[in-house]
Amino acid sequence: MKLPLPTRKSKDTSSAGNGNGNGNGATPEGPTKAERREAVKTATIHHAAEGGATAAGWVDQRVNGTGIYTALLTRKVPKGTNWFYTLGSATMFIFAMQAITGVFLSMYYTPSATQAYASITHLTNDVFMGEFVRGMHKWGASLMIILIFLHMARTFFFGAYKYPRELNWVIGVVLIVLTMVMGLTGYLLPFDQRSFWATIVANNITASGPVVGPYLADFLRAGPDFSATTLSRFYALHMLLVPGLIGALIGAHLFLVVKLGTTAPPWVKAARPKGARPTEFVPAGVPAPEELAANGAITNGAVTNGAVTNGAVTNGVAPADPADGSADEPVAEAAAEEPAIESGESGAPSDQEAAGDSPAPSDSDGEVNA
Ligand code: HEM
Measuring CA to CA, which residue among 94, 87, 182, 187 is closest to residue 144? Predict the structure, then answer.
């Protein structure tokens, strides 16, 4: 049988078009000047677009911009997330506004005891939009304090300070202190009568603080007396140190928010883990049968206050009995019914034994730590 000979793939002749065999695709007359110009234009646009995409991709590959974008802006949030969750971002936005307006103010401000007030007057009265920018900075300071307290209240009332977010709470406490330091140090800068005397009062209050108070006041005053150096010190703190610290701490704060996620509102019921017993069968303080291991020890950490350490009552006081709701019934009886109990003949130690060996405080009421 004759196999069919492999056929040569025919070239796309549509571009050749003229059939004159030179294969350059040009018409006998060649493209017109306008066509050539159009082709160059299209190629240039494509090239530029590709160049841009490549540059963005190049940067993205190195800094993982897409990952950061996803983590910050398209991450999942718990059910029930509401407007109260915007208070942190609002605080951050105001901080950014303070930083921007502060940069413009610093362009005209002179941190000198003799010129500070004049420079502020000049900025307010003569500089284009000076009063507006100064007003934004001044009102922004109050707004930031209000927002930070509201944000703290939100995290407190939603229980967001609990495990595993304690560190974020601690960072937040430092942030709130630093924000107030910004308010204090900024207040002196206009160096008018009000700011001067108000800062002296604030400094005296600081000095009356226990242990560190006097040292802190000395540090802020930059010496034993309120002087021109005090203004320089406040300016440096207000312009450089404190905003730098706040910026860095906001970074750490957000990192933890992204890493740990946000807390669901307290009224949103948490889903029960798969295989968990229904809660109505788990009265506080009563270990479930499967929680008693072969030696009678409670191993899953459910009982953590030391009232039950080896499957028996160790301080003679039992957790509440689910049957009658009484807390006086020693759990030893319940434990004795368990087949796996080893300690003692009856499976439960005597009350004395239990009380003697117990590491638990005698006033333990057998409640299970939640
Ligand atoms: C400059 C100040 C602050 C900024 C910019 C800031 C920013 C944020 C942002 C954007 C969030 C995530 C969204 C939200 O829950 O609102 C957040 C969460 C959180 N913040 Fe702040 N915050 C600041 C100060 C504070 C303070 C003063 C506290 C408490 C003392 C605090 C404690 C927390 C906690 C515990 C979370 C986690 C919330 C959760 O898991 O639901 N923050 N913060």
Answer: 94
Residues facing 298 on adjacent strands: 292
Tell me the pTM: 0.65
d(CA 48, CA 50): 5
| pLDDT tens column, 325-363 | 443 444 434 333 343 333 333 333 333 333 333 333 333
Domain housing 287: 280-370
Q: How far is CA 87 from CA 58, 150, 155, 257, in A?
A: 35, 7, 10, 14
Same domain, 256 and 140: yes
Between vectors from CA 138 to CA 137 and to CA 143, what angle results, nearest 5°? 90
CA of 253 to the centre of ligand 1 (A): 7
Residue 107 lies in a domain: yes
Kindly list the protein residues whose Cβ atom lies closer than 6 A to any atom of ligand 1: 85, 87-89, 91-92, 95, 148, 151-152, 155, 158, 160-161, 165, 168-169, 172-173, 175-176, 179, 246, 250, 253, 257, 262-263
Q: What is the rounded distance in angstroms from the CA atom of residue 325 to the CA atom of residue 362?
A: 21
Among 226, 260, 294, give the residue marking a domain's end: 260
In the block, tokens 């899953």 appear at 300
| Rounded Cα–Cα distance for residues 189 and 56 (Å) | 43
- Take residue 125 and report the two structure tokens written for it: 């009265």
DSSP conformation class of 239? I
